[in-house]
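Re: [help] complex structure
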Amino acid sequence: MRHIISVLVENEFGVLSRIAGLFSGRGFNIESLCVAETMDPTISTMTIVTTGNEAILEQILKQLNKLINVIKVIDFKDMDYVSREMVLVKVNATEKNREEILRMVEIFRGRIIDVSAKTYTVMITGDEDKIKAFLTLIKPLGIKELVRTGPVAMLRGEKTIKMKEKHGKGEEDGQGVL
Amino acid sequence: MKKTGAQIFVESLRKEGVNTIFCYPGGATLNITDELHHATDIKQIVVRHEQAAVHASDGYARASGKVGVCLVTSGPGATNTVTGIATAYMDSIPIIVFSCQINTALIGNDAFQEADIVGITRPCTKHNYLVKDVKDLARIIKEAFYIARSGRPGPVLVDIPKDVTANMADFHYPEDVHIRSYRPTYVGHVGQIKKALKLIASSERPVLYTGGGIISSGASKELRRFSEMLSIPVTSTLMGLGGFPGDHPLFMGMLGMHGTYAANMAVIESDLIIAVGARFDDRATGKVDEFAPRAKIIHVDIDPTSISKNIKVDVPIVGDSRNVLKKMIELLEQEKEDFKDYPSKIAPWVEQINKWMASYPLTYNRTGLLKPQYVIERIYELTKGNAIIATEVGQNQMWAAQFYKFIKPRTILTSGGLGTMGYGFPASIGAQVAFPDALVIDIAGDGSIQMNIQELATAAQFNLPVKIVILNNRYLGMVRQWQELFYERRYTWTPMDYAPDFLKLAEAYGVAGYRIEKEEEVDTVLKEAFMNKKTTIIDVRIDPYECVYPIVPPGASLKEMLIV
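Output below.
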């Protein structure tokens, strides 16, 4: 099963290596990883897409929590969230298919951000399904190169991920931490 | 007033109450080394190899319950500590390794004696630090001690570049630690504890399965009280030995690969496993799918990652073992009525276990050459549990665990998780430094002892009367045993015929040496050796083909024990 996890970490050197090392050392998968500073410059958010069954995911969440530099771990499973990814695609632009590419970009509300005699570079953002659909349709036209950011995610509505400090886990609810 | 990094370092150790460090010098340590020249209040045990400095601080920590501290130089000095750190990490032992580093400006340039020790030790430390600014030094040391000893304890490495030890800063040792991302849970959730008690009340064949968490949380009194209140039999992992008296009628002995028949059968037949401070390691559980097939499982552990990692748990309780047991006892006392008939209800079960213990006790065939089990039994009889026993790894370790009855916590020092050969001797040095008057015995094999034999010089230099009992079978015995049982006796790589003459070696290092070849020599020589005030080697020539029994073949279920 595929999961999106957000990890709030101390914005210090070596933290990325701790997280990446945890995944490789314990044989967990990382499908994509996206890291950047938050509003608070001492904290970074890592958005990780991983795969695994329930038991593996439980271990991933607990092991991440155990790292001293990790402030909070959120599994978006069973939560109402939005996620978006950005993709840059360099497409062969021949006389014949230029129109088709432009139409497709318009339909998917993407943008052409670079043009050469033989190529268009398209930027497109969206959730997993939208990007998949776009790539399926554009593929026959000839993709020269593709770069993806991996998704970032956020809760829907007014809810936010509280920067609240780790409190003694399990004090209130021994079950909740597991 | 401003102080140098080296002065801040030494002052910080004092603030933490450190009176002993295990160390080895190098170019990068020199500022600190020189500062310690005047520090007569801090015992400085200079080892002969950095690995031993770590094991010694680990042995010091296990025996005393305090944080062990060692200090080494950059590059090879630092990389030599890795095995020691990994050993402490697997067994949750609170130590701090201070490694000195080359100058900050040179880091990353492949300078002389440079190694990225923070990168190298990331997966085998609880946490580690590179101190980039002398202003951070005191705070980092404070945090390091706090992290090492709190929650599930573990090793912390602090890497200090040489220029940081020379640079100046104001010294304020922080009063408190505030790490927003680290708050271990000590108090178990009451609702969960009540659920656990309900499950216990309805059980008929309960087993307490206890581990190193009993030792590190200091829960042995509570464990005993709890077990006796309900008359629940106890089995322990290797790491938990001494947490419950080894001579107690409710003690079944160790479980697992070399566990007792009674303990393993009890687990197989049990309807409720109460795991406290143990982590369902593969050496304890055997084939996981067939571990305790009829049992519900209650699991008390301070580390949430240990829970439901190997075995699915019915009632998880995150918390400190001692706190949780205390709360359980408190609730039991409040609800005395509900549990009044419990001991008599489970009496048939206890009776069954007693039968197993009587029918299949730990035993061995005493005919022929001198048996290692006999030697351990005699060591127990002569010391009555009043000794600190370190072990190496392999057969010596298992015989010690089986045939020495550990009565008190913190009396066994053994590399349980990582299985580090060469651990026992330096660990016993650490324990002897912590308790100069205690009888400290390293039960070794002729293979393991050669992995840190150079420390004889350290023990001799600092007048540490450690007793090294070498169960000498001229083989790497445990591997040989597997070759005998599972590889048609092809003894490839395991013969150790080319070992030194340990008596001559003792003489060369200026320590005492004895040899035992027959049963009738055992008591006399051991008694004399235990009285000797010097570091002492006792070379015991044992039956080379003796095996450790029972054994659960690797990957097999606990019920598939091979017994004598």
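Residues 465 and 478 of chain B are 28 Å apart (CA to CA).
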